[in-house]
Design brief:
The chain is an alpha/beta fold. It is built from two helices and eight strands, in the order E-E-E-H-E-E-E-H-E-E.
Length: 150
Amino acid sequence: MKAVIQRVSRASVAVEGEEISKIEKGLLILLGIENADGREDVVWLSKKIVNLRIFNDDDGVMNNSLLDVDGDAIVVSQFTLQALTKKGNRPSYIKASKPEIAIPLYEKFIQQIEADLGKKVGTGVFGTDMKVALLNDGPVTIVIDSKNKE
């Protein structure tokens, strides 16, 4: 699993002109799932994200986690994170999971992060054209790959 985590002052997701998720202070998490991903990736990535110390403390130092600041989150499935760009100019998405694999893992990730965070999170709608808006705070953007544990 690959995740792009963006610290935001606000973020939202709209489908067909209707806003379906909205948060203030927190994280926008773009999630790319590949065929080799499983339950271990879900658990590891969720715990890593909710405990990642990327929010400022009272001294202005990034020392607090999403849990520490009682922040919110939106999780959006994004298969293009699995793009391979080594050959040519057209990305290959062969590593991206098909819906029959990706949807259950996406749903498990949402359940896991809600359990780890202790609250509901916003989501996108898997496989649809979404409009994602955000105000990146910092900016702070971090990429995590569960296969590399980095």
